[in-house]
Specification:
Layout (H helix, E strand, L loop, with lengths): L3 E7 L7 H14 L4 E7 L9 H11 L5 E4 L2 H4 L3 H14 L2 E4 L4 E2 L3 H34 L13 H10 L3 H8 L3 H12 L12
Parallel strand pairs: 1-2, 1-3, 3-4
Antiparallel strand pairs: 4-5
Helix pairs in contact: 4-5, 7-8
Length: 204
């Protein structure tokens, strides 16, 4: 017997999941599914990273205690196309069927698999476009002579020399200069060479 998880969500506390649940329950009865668990997120935005009910359901899916996930619509389930595709890919890997009533998608059917392939292609196109926009922006910045990456550390050389002469421990020296210990070591070695680290007063 298939183990079924129903998931529904509404964005505000004054809304109700009753309509979604009624449709989901009717669908399960029509399919003859009796081992059904309901997961409901009430007053949770679809863009939220964490959703208690959804997180609980996904934990059961990953533990392989769910065979079918049924939702009322894509937008009740996924945060974005990318999130939806990533979850569907996980379901596919775990052998879990996904059904969305409004879109009439059932990944257990040949048509449902075809629709999933189309959605995955769109998501891949979206990722490719983002990557291309980032690369184009970097090329433009270089062409305009803009310096990329983190700004160069600005440390008073005389202050650095005095700290090194005092032989302060690395962490104390870095704190006094307002930089990280690794940055202090790098600056000190640039100033005094890479010979003996011990020569850089107390850097050892």
């Amino acid at each position: 017997m298939k183990r079924v998880a129903l998931y529904c969500r509404v964005s505000t506390t004054d809304q109700t999941c009753d309509n979604q649940l009624r449709d989901l329950r009717d669908y399960c009865r029509a399919r003859g599914w009796e081992q059904v668990t309901e997961y409901v997120d009430q007053g949770i935005s679809g863009t939220r990273e964490r959703r208690p009910a959804l997180d609980g359901m996904m934990a059961e899916v990953k533990a392989r205690r769910v065979d079918v996930v049924v939702v009322a619509a894509f937008d009740r389930f996924g945060r974005s196309v990318r999130h939806l595709v990533e979850v569907l890919d996980l379901f596919h890997h775990l052998g879990v069927e996904f059904i969305s009533l409004r879109e009439q998608v059932d990944t257990g059917s040949a048509l449902g698999q075809a629709i999933f392939t189309i959605i995955a292609a769109i998501a891949q196109l979206e990722r490719s476009l983002i990557v291309e926009r980032v690369k184009a922006g970097l090329r433009r910045a270089r062409a305009e002579g803009k310096r990329l990456g983190r700004p160069r550390l600005r440390v008073d050389v005389r202050h650095l020399e005095r700290i090194v002469e005092r032989g302060l421990p690395v962490r104390a020296a870095a704190k006094e200069l307002g930089i990280s210990p690794s940055s202090f070591l790098r600056l000190a070695r640039q100033r005094y060479g890479n010979g003996s680290v011990a020569q850089v007063g107390g850097v050892a």
